[in-house]
């Protein structure tokens, strides 16, 4: 059982749950509070209907969706995810190689377990750096300059984490970075020897961007000081593309556009921040209507299948991003598992378009 057994998100998640330590699985799979927001996200996506059409020649379907300076051979990219190497040794670079192969953006998290310099090198330039504001912002500004020096041309500022949301599943397992190994964690790792041994041999995952002098990060540190003045300062100092991620309110989106942000990523952090947050897929068409047809509007949250990708385009997305699903594919089958999942999602997108009588994306808000 491995890559060949992955035929859906549920397959990848089931295999990952079997192989990962409980602490790691609950970190990747967990959500804020009781998981209500995550469930509502999935339910809202599930309820979207796609109209089928018949007797349309759909032989030549083109799934390419260019985004900024990426050809976008695949119609979806990789959302920034912290500590990806927890899903399997070398996961960050597996994702980077996939981004290079398909010429899609790879979101590189502030708290990646591989340095931002190494990831953009392996991704052959197909990488965006995701930025968290932290503390008084001084460390954040250093990271911006470091990303610029490394050759990043797109910066993604995550805005929906003024404080880290409470995720009870993480708390119950004692998840902390760096790891603190107590009796519960020792038993957990011992019961999952395949993961534990491979991770030990590869070196325990850590916050790689903070292993240099002058760079520190506390995952629990307040990010509450970030405001519109900081955004303006960031816009003035960054001459590449600036993406604002974590937006669900129309008025916020309108102001972000007015402040010179190049694109907005509609997202609720996968339901990991506020358990009462509205489903971002329902906010997407409202924001599209407010910002116009031509403004770059990206989407992540709750994407599990090729049909979900098409639904996001139908609701107004210019480009779509996958998150935790890719980590489960890696945990389930390594790099082969990632390739298997990527290919099946791509195939599902093509099949869905055929059923709809369409041959290209985006869909310009048309279901």
UniProtKB/TrEMBL annotation:
Enzyme class: oxidoreductase
Requisite cofactors: FMN
EC number, as in UniProt: 1.1.99.31
MF annotations from Gene Ontology: (S)-mandelate dehydrogenase activity
Short name of one Pfam family: FMN_dh
InterPro entries linked: Aldolase_TIM, Alpha-hydoxy_acid_DH_FMN, FMN-dep_DH, FMN_HAD
PROSITE patterns, per database record: FMN_HYDROXY_ACID_DH_2
Gene3D superfamilies documented for this protein: Aldolase class I
All copies of domain FMN hydroxy acid dehydrogenase, residue ranges: 1-367
UniProt keyword Transit peptide present: no
Domain of life: Bacteria
Keyword entries, A-Z: Flavoprotein, FMN, Oxidoreductase
UniProt key word Flavoprotein: yes
CDD domains referenced in this protein's UniProt entry, alphabetically: alpha_hydroxyacid_oxid_FMN
Family: Belongs to the FMN-dependent alpha-hydroxy acid dehydrogenase family.
Designated name of the protein: (S)-mandelate dehydrogenase
Source organism per UniProt: Roseobacter fucihabitans
